[in-house]
Design goal:
Length: 123
């Protein structure tokens, strides 16, 4: 039986992201591969654009399907003994709120870290 590895793409230059990745590395069951976005070749036809990768968490499943945002976070944590704690975030009553909170946080993180650093004005 071939192992089924998912690959989580993360922002290695983000201290908060790096802390979560360190925790995931330590507690995962061995079927999650970690890929720092900044170490990936830009313009690779196999990957979404770097800006997309930096804006939202991305996970490529072992079947080649892309999962993003809150779904990627829940899927990554499903590789740990704590995955059950994250699954309720996808329940129909909780998901719309959890998604809004995640996307709001992700947008603020991206704008503070990248948009300001690049001198790009928000439109």
């Amino acid at each position: 039986m071939n192992p089924k590895y998912d690959t989580l793409f993360y922002d290695g230059s983000c201290p908060l992201c790096a802390k979560e990745i360190r925790t995931l590395r330590r507690v995962q069951r061995g079927q999650l591969i970690f890929a720092d976005i900044h170490e990936q070749p830009e313009g690779s036809p196999q990957l979404p654009p770097h800006e997309d990768l930096l804006r939202r968490l991305h996970l490529m499943t072992w079947t080649g399907e892309w999962v993003t945002g809150l779904h990627a976070n829940v899927r990554a944590w499903s590789h740990t003994p704590f995955g059950w704690l994250f699954k309720p975030l996808l329940w129909p009553v909780i998901y719309p709120i959890a998604k809004r909170v995640y996307e709001g946080w992700a947008d603020r993180r991206y704008e503070r870290k990248y948009v300001c650093a690049l001198g790009v004005k928000k439109t």
